[in-house]
TrEMBL record:
Its EC number is 3.2.1.14. PANTHER family: CHITINASE (PTHR11177), CHITINASE 12-RELATED (PTHR11177:SF317). This is chitinase. It catalyses: Random endo-hydrolysis of N-acetyl-beta-D-glucosaminide (1->4)-beta-linkages in chitin and chitodextrins. PROSITE patterns: GH18_1 (PS01095), GH18_2 (PS51910), PROKAR_LIPOPROTEIN (PS51257). Residues 127-136 have a biased composition (Low complexity). It is an enzyme of class 3 (hydrolase). Belongs to the glycosyl hydrolase 18 family. Residues 116-136 are annotated as: Disordered. Residues 159-425 form the GH18 domain. InterPro entries: Chitinase_II/V-like_cat, GH, Glyco_hydro18_cat, Glyco_hydro_18_chit_AS, Glycosyl_Hydrlase_18.
């Protein structure tokens, strides 16, 4: 009986030892399989590629991280993925990648996947303590983690559609502001340019408050000198039948004419922006003069902002006054035809027109931004470009205009926009 008891006890002890060895070996193999599975899942979700490094990095050197486009990742996921990749200074193999719709837990790091190769010989029987010691002493391979993410592309800006309305439209010679609405064009436009404002030949400032027709001869070098139409701009009272909203301009209102119609058009079409276009074919004569020096540029730009952005129109016939046209225009369009020559007969030109135009645009941008800081708005600045490459090269520093203008208008088939009334660009 004693022999039987001792034999049974020996069997129990032997079973316990064999069970311990089985558990140790199973844990080791399971750790390997778990690491490989985690890596596979991570590759499927976050496109993390883990490969063995050729050489160990120096102490304190972060693991190489490459961020490049990968189709299908969201912008939020990209930000999270970039934020989660940190330099691995002491133990690169323990770096965890998290964020882009998946995560690699620290305990499932790729380094643990290579503790025991699948083709290695079965481990010799050992105690649990020896198995744990063997795992701790196993070499940890160095890894390079390459994270490939793609932020979602920014929404493409909507197509810019620009319409011109002529100052002389108030006389019925071309389309009026009301025509833009009744024809359905206003609903298709993003911007409307009011053409044109002139330059005062004496003070070299933005000309406003003057009603004087053009000289009749188109070949007259002084055809546009001093010309303007304040009556059409803001003095003429529109009747109810002529007005865009069917409401006549009161006789004592400080703002009437085309400017008030533009204001009503913007109210009917929220998001539509109006710009005053300065220059054009007949009013570009003195651009070279106002752009020549810093003092001339500052004086000219301030006068334009005073009249058309701040809305301080000269008083005449009970119309106008400080702030009377505020809110009509959202920016300035520069239509210099053309810097360096080739415009209307009699235009002033200079060898530095190309460079001075850029300086003039920079002055407009600076003063518009300064005003915008005070009012909490962004004021637009645009420029009209010729279609011919030779004329662009002669008068426009396109690369330097980046950051100054919001967009450009390009001449279409050599036609002058205002001669056709309101047209789509």
């Amino acid at each position: 009986m004693g022999a039987i008891t001792r034999g049974a006890f020996a069997v129990v002890v032997l079973s316990a030892v064999l069970s311990s060895l089985f558990v140790a070996c199973y844990d080791l193999v399971r750790a390997t399989e778990t690491g490989v599975s985690a890596v596979g899942q991570t590759q499927a979700r976050t496109r993390v590629v883990v490969r063995k490094a050729a050489a160990a990095p120096a102490q304190g050197t972060p693991a190489r991280v490459v961020v490049a486009p990968a189709q299908g990742a969201s912008a939020q996921g990209a930000a999270l993925a970039q934020a989660a990749v940190a330099p691995a200074q002491a133990a690169p193999a323990q770096a965890a990648v998290a964020g882009a719709q998946g995560a690699v837990p620290a305990q499932a790091a790729p380094a643990q996947a290579a503790v025991a190769p699948a083709q290695a010989a079965p481990p010799q029987p050992a105690s649990p303590e020896q198995a744990a010691s063997a795992r701790a002493a196993a070499p940890v391979p160095e890894v390079t983690v390459t994270v490939t993410v793609t932020p979602s592309p920014s929404p493409s800006p909507g197509r810019i559609r620009v319409g011109y309305v002529s100052q002389r439209g108030a006389y019925g010679a071309t389309s009026t502001v009301r025509d833009l609405d009744t024809s359905g064009l206003a609903g298709r436009l993003t911007h409307v340019l009011y053409a044109f404002a002139n330059i005062d030949p004496e003070s070299l400032t933005c000309l406003s408050g003057v009603t004087q027709p053009l000289a009749p001869d188109p070949n007259d070098p002084d055809q546009g000198d001093g010309a303007g139409d304040a009556w059409a701009d803001y003095q003429r009272g529109f009747t109810a039948a002529e007005s865009l909203d069917g409401v006549a301009d009161p006789p004592d209102a400080p703002l009437a004419g085309n400017f008030n119609q533009l204001k009503k058009l913007k109210a009917r079409h929220p998001g539509l922006k109006a710009l005053i276009s300065i220059g054009g074919w007949t009013y570009s004569k003195y651009f070279s003069d106002v752009a020549r020096t810093a003092a001339a540029r500052q004086r000219f730009v301030k006068s334009c902002l005073d009249a058309y952005i701040r809305g301080d129109l000269p008083g005449a016939g009970g119309r106008g006054g400080p702030g009377s046209a505020a809110g009509v225009f959202d920016g300035i369009d520069i239509d210099w035809e053309w810097p360096g020559g080739g415009g209307h007969l009699g235009n002033h030109t200079g060898a530095d027109d190309r460079r001075n135009l850029t300086a003039l645009l920079a002055e407009f941008r600076a003063q518009l931004d300064a005003l915008g800081e005070a009012t909490g708005r962004h004021y637009l600045l645009t420029v009209y470009l010729p279609a011919g490459a030779d004329r662009i090269d002669a008068g426009f520093e396109l690369e330097r205009m980046v950051g100054l203008v919001d967009f450009v208008n390009v001449q279409r088939e050599g036609r002058h926009a205002v001669r056709e009334g309101a047209i789509l660009r």
